[in-house]
Amino acid sequence: MTQLIGFLLLLMAFASMMLLGLPSGSRVNLVLNLIGACLLAVDALANWRWAFFALECVWALVALYAIIRSYLKSDSFTTKNCSSATRQGQGICIQPIEAELTVCKVADYTEIDLNSPFVFTGRTDQEASLVCPTEIVPSRTLERSDGWRAFRIQGILDFSLIGILAPIATILANKGIGIFAVSTYNTDYVLTKAEDFPAALDALDKSGYTII
Q: I need a labelling partner for 14 at 20 to 30 A (CA). Which of 36, 74, 114, 125 fits?
């Protein structure tokens, strides 16, 4: 049973990358790998399979190291630090949002809890648009597009700042990745299709942005 659970956890970690678009370095993925590897290491030790035990121990240690590093990295890039770096036009911090999002057009907002996190509304004289986690999409939508992921520019952006979103859009456009951008009072949120999300984060990371 221990071996089966361990294998299932590692399979879930793999599936989260392939099917849900979670980055391999996401904490959810790393925790699944850590627990799965530990369970397999225990099973290998109980059955005297030393090579497999050593392999799983290394796997677990790598996952544990990555988890610790991710927390240390997050602590070193606080909202204040990211905001300061943004004002200087460098060291911009990108924070992935875990939720899967849906972009839709609705008749009204009566079915949606506007106090829920990551709910964006936009009403004009022609339409009422809604971006929200897929799990709370209203039952009645006029049109909808599922399978979106998002990241935000960490910190509070001053209204006088220019050229923050354009370079990001250009980097992703050069990779053939389309975006849907939403701006709030504090910052900008950039949405891509879930299957493009890992590639989008990788492109920004290689272009000098800090993924936290």
A: 74
d(CA 76, CA 97) in angstroms, rounded, equals 19
Record the tokens describing residue 117, joined without a space. Answer: 């996190």
Write the pLDDT tens digit of every residue in 26-44: 777 788 888 988 999 898 8
Asked if 138 contacts 106 with a C-beta cutoff of 8 angstroms, the reply is yes
For residue 201, CA distances in Å to 49, 139, 207 come to 39, 32, 10
Asked if residues 164 and 136 have their Cβ atoms less than 8 Å apart, the reply is no
Q: Pairing relation of β-strands 93-105 and 210-211?
A: parallel
Tokens of 119: 């709910």
Residue 117 parent element (H or E): none
Per-residue pLDDT tens digits for 69-121: 777 655 544 444 554 444 433 568 899 999 999 999 999 999 999 999 999 99
Integer Cα distance of 209 and 48 in angstroms: 46
Burial 88-122 (b: 16+ CB within 10 A, else e): eeeebbbbbbebbbbbbebeeeeebeeeeebbbee
CB-based contact 96:53 (threshold 8 Å)? no
